[in-house]
Amino acid sequence: MFRTACPSCGAEVLFRSTISALAVCEYCQSTVLRNADEVKDFGKIGKVLEDYSPIQIGTSGVFSGRAFTVIGRIQLRYEAGLWNEWYVSFDDGKQGWLADTSGQYMFTLPLPETRTATSQQAFDTFEPEMRYEHGGRVYVVTDVRIAQCVGGQGELPFALGQGYEAKVVDCRSGDRFLTLDFSDVTLFKPNPTLYVGEAVELSSLQLQLLRDGETILASAGRLKGTSAVLDCPSCGSALQYQAGVATQIVCKACGSSVDCSGDKALVLEKHTAAALYHATLDVGDAATIDGVNWKIIGLIEMEETHDADSSWTEYLLYNAQQGFFWLVESNDGWFRVNVLNRLPDSWSSESAVLDGVRYRRPFELYSAKVSYAAGAFNWRVSVGDQVSCAEYEHNGERLCKEKSNTEIVWSKSKRIPNQLVQQWFGKETVITPASSATTESGDNQHLAMLFIIALLVLNVPLAFLGSNVIGGLFWTGLAVWLIRLPLKLGGDEE
């Protein structure tokens, strides 16, 4: 352990690792560069944005039988959001990185120079779903992005400052993870640096000193060391980001996309064409699922690009300890959706295999776009965003592949009964997807109308003949009540 005074402000700066090249002063955000016989101010770096992550400097755990401690952090921002890279020091003196993005975690270790990539394939030639071979294993490119370092904290293994650009290609093979880092590629170092590892669950790392739920919710959406609370800079309404993922927010009042990952909220885009959504649930609704409290922090309305009548609503639910999951409301009913932190074993245009189970594609390939969004998200959501989709099904469970220009994402969903959704959210009336309710209501009204016509045809002539007019009027009145009942129920649900 090495202690020194910050060259800028004089505060104590601590180096826990003997090989850390840089540490960020907690008081003035200066990056302190340590050379063999001196320390110097390397310039300032931005403050990290506190987010939903339970990890913090000092968190310790075990990966692959080796104990480690988190000693540093950088935040990287790309066009659609940001993510954390936690720098960890193992007890044996080695270092690694724990990536933390959208509630998913990947542990990677740098490969020695002698084992790095030998292919000189350029960064801009990579695209999602390409194959890339390394070490006798075939990987699939899942993410291609350019990001800038916007914040730092603790110790870091190399010198970087505000504006440091990272050019990375992420690849997966099952739960194995491979990153090609082109950030330091030069004429004299033409090949990217490779990091290999695997997708992990926090529960498997035996972590200690995590942030608790109350701490996360109290600090989320704020720059470390500040108490700023943001309003929409477009209309002035309070931005709802209590749940802890307030890096990208869609203002519910005016539809503006607001980037909250910098020192000031920035209006990215105003959704002037956004239509009023017709979802059953809303941002802020709370649910209790298996004794765990969840809250809807964002909702997205999607529609097929070539069929506006085919639409559905996706709700993002969050819990400080459990992370995220999606609840989807569609014409087919309700589905609970979890984003996979691994790839299927294999897939083609007709089927996909996950854990040895083959899922068949019963639906046509389609494209979908965002038609409305509101609430908080950990990436930028914009009206008009498009993805191409392929769905596969087996015994009521579905796999879905969503592909954009920069990434592919796989998810797994399972149908859940309407009554269970009602129980989760404590609704007094049975929750039925809007389209299904409309269809059922329309069918009831159609049948009731036919009933009324038939009764009138039968009873009006009888009335002139002096037959049982009172009885006929009773049955006709009952039919009128039946046709009005669905209309009343529909109005109550709205």
Question: Can you give keywords for this protein?
Answer:
494 residues; globular; DUF4178
How is this structure best summarized?
This protein is mainly β. The chain has helices at residues 213-219, 418-425, 434-464, 469-493, and strands at 2-5, 12-15, 22-24, 30-34, 39-44, 60-63, 66-78, 81-90, 95-101, 104-110, 131-134, 137-156, 165-173, 176-181, 193-200, 248-250, 256-259, 266-270, 286-289, 292-304, 307-319, 323-330, 333-339, 346-347, 351-354, 357-360, 366-377, 386-394, 397-403, 408-416.
Helix content: 10-25%
Derived structural class: mainly beta
The low-pLDDT segments are 222-229, 242-246, 271-276, 434-443, 485-494
- Please state the average pLDDT score: 76
**Extended strand count:** 30
User: In angstroms, what separates the terminal alpha carbons?
Assistant: 62 Å
Strand order of the largest sheet: 7-8-9-10-15-14-13-12
| Biggest β-sheet strands, sense, barrel | 8 strands, antiparallel, barrel
Counted by DSSP, the helix tally is 4
- Kindly give the count of domains: 3
Question: What is the overall shape?
Answer: globular
Strand content: 35-45%
Rounded to the nearest angstrom, the radius of gyration is 28 Å
InterPro entries: DUF4178 (IPR025235)
Protein name: DUF4178 domain-containing protein
Keywords: Membrane, Transmembrane, Transmembrane helix
Pfam family, one: DUF4178
